[in-house]
Design brief:
DNA-binding, homodimer, elongated, alpha+beta, 31% helix, Arc Repressor Mutant, subunit A, Alpha-Beta Plaits
Chain lengths: 179, 179
DNA sequence: CTTCGATCGTGCGGAATTCGCAGGAGTAGA
DNA sequence: TCTACTCCTGCGAATTCCGCACGATCGAAG
C-alpha cells in the first residue's frame, strides 16, 4: 500500500534563487506528506495523464528531470497511478452496482476478502448504516446475480447486503485539487 | 457528463484543413461500438497510461500511428480519459462520503445539478432504495457538513439523503477487461 | 460497373520528449 | 569538518510523438 511515509521528505527544497513559502504546504496533519510542488504535479496529471514533463515543469517551476523523478517516486510509492479510465458501460460491462454490506466481526477482514474479487473494483469502509460500500462491475445480469448472491454473501462475516444497480453514470471526475 | 474536459485539450489547435467538431455527438446514450483492438488498447493504457504508442502497437498488432489515431479518437469521444488518480486522503482531502439521495420529480435534473458541484466527483443514477448515489470529496468536517446539509439538500427535488462517511479506502482499480 | 467520399492503416522524416548519468547545493548527524 | 543523503539541474543520446501523404477497403450514388 501507500501508507509508508518515508521519513517526511517534505522539507521544501529551496531551489536556488526562488523563495517559495515554506510555511504553506503543511495544511494536512496526516502522515503521508506531499509538498505543494508534488500536489501541483498531480494536479497537472489529473488534467492530462500524458502531459510532457517539460510542460509540467514550466507550470510548477521545476526542471524536466526533477518532474520526471518526482512522478516516478509518486508512482513507486503508490501515491498516484496514471491510467486510462472509462465508463464501463461503453466497454462491454453492462451491469454495475453499488452494494452496501453489513458485517459482523472483523470488518477489515471482510473488506480484504471482497477486495480480492476481481469484480469488486472499489471497496471502502464506511460509517453509517453500512459497514462497507462495494462497487462491482459485471458483464450481464447473470454475472451480477452470481457475484452478489453467491460470492459476496458467501464471505464469512457478511451479515446482509443491499444493492443499487446502476442505471446511468452521470459524472466521473478525477480532478480534486483543481479548485 | 465527463467527456468535455478531456476532449478540449488538443482537438482545436490541430485542425489543418477540415476542423470539424465531432465532439458534439459524443452524448452518452450511443455506444461507440468498440472493436477488439480498441479494447486491447484501452487495456494496455489501464495498466500504464503513459505507455508509448509503439509498445501498444506491438502488443495489439498495429502501427504506432494507428494506435495514436485510435487513442486520440477514444479521448475525443469521451470513451476514456488518461489521468492520474490518487487516494484523496493522501492529497489533503480528509473527508469523503457516499451519499444516497432520494428524489421527487425529475431524477436526471437533480443528477445534473449535483454533477455541477465540484465536490461531487461521482454521480450515478441507481435502482433500489436510493435514486442517486453521489460520492463527495471534502477538505474537512465543516466542508462536508456544508456540502451535505446546505448544498445537496438545497437542490430542488431532493427529498432526503443518507450519508456514509469513508473510514478507509481498501481498493481502487481501473482494470476492467484485464481478467 | 464506375466513381465519389469517408474511414482506417502504413511509412516516413523532423521535432519534441524521455532517459540515464554526472555534478552541485542544502541538510542532518557523528 | 566530514560523511551520507536527498533533491535539483544540465546535457547528450535514444526514443517517442506528430503531421502528412499515400494506399486499401467499403458503401452509396451515378
Amino acid at each position: 500500500m501507500h501508507s509508508d511515509l518515508v521519513a517526511s521528505r517534505s522539507a521544501e527544497q529551496k531551489g536556488s534563487r526562488e523563495s517559495r513559502e515554506p510555511s504553506r504546504e503543511s495544511r494536512n496533519g496526516s502522515s503521508p506528506q506531499l509538498d505543494a510542488v508534488s500536489l501541483a504535479i498531480i494536479e497537472q496529471l489529473q488534467e492530462d495523464g500524458r502531459r510532457p514533463y517539460a510542460a509540467i515543469g514550466k507550470a510548477v517551476g521545476l526542471s524536466e528531470a526533477a518532474v520526471r523523478q518526482r512522478v516516478q517516486k509518486l508512482l513507486d510509492q503508490g501515491v498516484m497511478q496514471i491510467v486510462a479510465v472509462t465508463d464501463p458501460l461503453t466497454v462491454g460491462f453492462r451491469r454495475q452496482a453499488m452494494v452496501g454490506v453489513n458485517v459482523e466481526g472483523d470488518v477489515e477482514a471482510v473488506a480484504d476478502a471482497l477486495s480480492a474479487m476481481s469484480e469488486c473494483e472499489y471497496v471502502v469502509m464506511t460509517a453509517g448504516s453500512f459497514d462497507l460500500m462495494v462497487e462491482i462491475v459485471c458483464e450481464d445480469d447473470d454475472h451480477l446475480l452470481d457475484v452478489i448472491n453467491k460470492r459476496i454473501r458467501a464471505v464469512p462475516g457478511v451479515r446482509s447486503t443491499e444493492s443499487f444497480v446502476y442505471l446511468k453514470l452521470k459524472k466521473q471526475t478525477y480532478m480534486w485539487g483543481t479548485r
